[in-house]
Request: fold
Amino acid sequence: MSTPQTPRQRSAQASLGQVVLGFELIVVGLAALTIFGLGALPPVVALGGGAAVCLLMLATIGLMMKYKWAFILGWAVQAIIVLSGFAVTMLFLIGAVFAGIWTFAMTTGAKLDSQKKEN
Reply:
């Protein structure tokens, strides 16, 4: 008979990061469609690049609970989204807003995790 496993402690930082990336995933999908619709990039680049970034974000969401290096991947995703402003200028603003939300989530999550560890 197997012994029941205790539930794994969830990291607040990972949970907050997953929420941010989840919402951002929707925006990135819509941004790819916008880039395609405006003809700012060739269709293969606009839609293929958007799909690749969405897949990267989904992978990051899945990896954040297990691996610390996935947080670095999350920062890389933020940089990619800010850089997408070279295709459509408004994406600089959207990328900066999400990078700010990501920064807040990472710092707040780290504080909550350290407080939980102390108690």
